[in-house]
């Protein structure tokens, strides 16, 4: 006979989203269990983040629920090591005890309960289910014609740590978001010859511009903040079109983020390397010439590369094990409901870490979920 572990809430994922939700629930004396497929908390940051990674938002916007403010000695923009240490101290402070190496293989609702099964053969039952596996579930690599015959190294950014192994080599970075642009810089700093694929428009700003905008958003409507920040950026980066980088014409950086989920590129030195010619900007890939290291681009040019690095992000993996995903997610594994009600589904299922609003969004969603669950319990 199978052993069933019963609790009030099962939380899937022990990243910042799952940990924050657990603390909010525990503060309301709601029993909860976190299931984590890896053997550590915050595995994305510990196992799949490059060495030079820093949070792009200032530390005052990166507080987890009920934690004290960051220390004055903490850098304004925390490094990967600073942030993971912060998460570890959070786990210790609130005595959170996730169950590690618990890969969820199936979760389904029936008879008024959620049944969660793991690869270890364990079964958990709960009234409520919180999916905190996050939007960065599995690495995404787009299909490229001829890629299977590429003669060099191919790598997703989740496996990249630093550019040391690429010194003296030609590396093509596919993806011009924050990861792609920063990895391009890191490659350049390690003596590699980096090229970055740019296919469409995006906003480029500095950390200072984002910090200023975030401060202003407390008091001023977003459209006015966008106007100010976009004007600053268009002046500071006015020469980027000649390098093949254009900004969206209709929306400012904050509105663009809130409507499309696309974060502006926060320049940490990459643009200067592009201006100096140390990093090249190239158009979209047409195909890889079969059996070679040659890449053909959309403009008809070809170039030879030793490596292709995909900084193309991640995809949600929840739909692969969540049998009743339509209660809360669309076909892409993202919330089907529009913000600000994205976190709540049907039949007692919730999601946290899918708002694309960073740690601040996680904290707000975790609080909202715990308050909603206690209200449901009180009704019964």
Can you put this structure into words, describing what you see?
With 380 residues, this protein is of the alpha/beta class. Strands 1, 2, 3, 4, 5 and 18 form a 6-stranded mixed beta sheet that branches. The chain has a 5-stranded parallel beta sheet with strand order 7-16-8-9-12. Helix 1 packs parallel to helix 9 and helix 5 packs antiparallel against helix 6 (222-236). The relative contact order is 0.17. The longest helix has 22 residues, at 358-379. The model has no long low-confidence stretch (mean pLDDT 94). It is built from 9 helices and 18 strands. Its cofactor is FAD. It comes from Linum tenue. Pfam families: Pyr_redox_3.
Q: Could you write a compact summary of the structure shown?
A:
By secondary structure, the protein is of the alpha/beta class.
């Amino acid at each position: 006979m199978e052993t069933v572990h019963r609790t009030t809430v099962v939380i899937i994922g022990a990243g910042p989203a799952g940990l924050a939700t657990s603390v909010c629930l525990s503060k309301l004396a709601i029993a909860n269990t976190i299931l984590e497929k890896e053997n550590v908390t915050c595995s994305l940051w510990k196992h799949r983040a490059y060495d030079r990674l820093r949070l792009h938002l200032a530390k005052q916007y990166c507080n987890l629920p009920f934690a004290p403010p960051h220390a004055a000695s903490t850098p304004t923009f925390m490094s990967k090591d600073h942030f993971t240490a912060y998460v570890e101290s959070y786990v210790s402070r609130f005595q959170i005890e996730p169950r590690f190496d618990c890969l969820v293989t199936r979760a389904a609702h029936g008879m008024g309960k959620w049944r969660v099964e793991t690869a270890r053969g364990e079964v958990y039952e709960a009234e409520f289910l919180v999916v905190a596996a996050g939007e960065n579930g599995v690495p995404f690599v787009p299909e490229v014609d001829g890629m299977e015959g590429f003669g060099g190294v191919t790598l997703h950014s989740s496996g990249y740590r630093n550019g040391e192994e690429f010194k003296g080599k030609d590396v093509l970075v596919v993806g011009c978001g924050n990861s792609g642009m920063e990895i391009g810089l890191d490659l350049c700093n390690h003596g590699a010859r980096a090229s970055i694929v740019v296919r469409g428009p995006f906003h480029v700003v500095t950390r200072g511009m984002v910090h200023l905008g975030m401060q202003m958003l407390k008091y001023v409507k977003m459209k006015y903040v966008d106007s100010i920040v976009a004007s600053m950026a268009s002046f500071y980066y006015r020469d980027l079109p000649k390098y093949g980088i254009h900004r969206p014409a209709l929306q400012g950086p904050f509105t663009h983020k809130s409507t499309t989920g696309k974060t502006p590129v926060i320049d940490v030195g990459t643009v200067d390397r592009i201006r100096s010619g140390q990093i090249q900007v190239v158009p979209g890939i047409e195909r890889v010439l079969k059996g070679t290291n040659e890449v053909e681009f959309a403009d008809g040019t070809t170039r030879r590369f030793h490596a292709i690095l995909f900084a193309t992000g991640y995809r949600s993996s929840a739909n692969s094990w969540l049998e009743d995903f339509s209660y809360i997610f669309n076909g892409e594994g993202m919330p089907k409901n529009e913000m600000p009600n994205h976190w709540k589904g049907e039949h007692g299922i919730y999601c946290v870490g899918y708002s694309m609003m960073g740690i601040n969004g996680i904290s707000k969603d975790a609080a909202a979920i715990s308050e909603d669950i206690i209200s449901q319990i009180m009704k019964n």
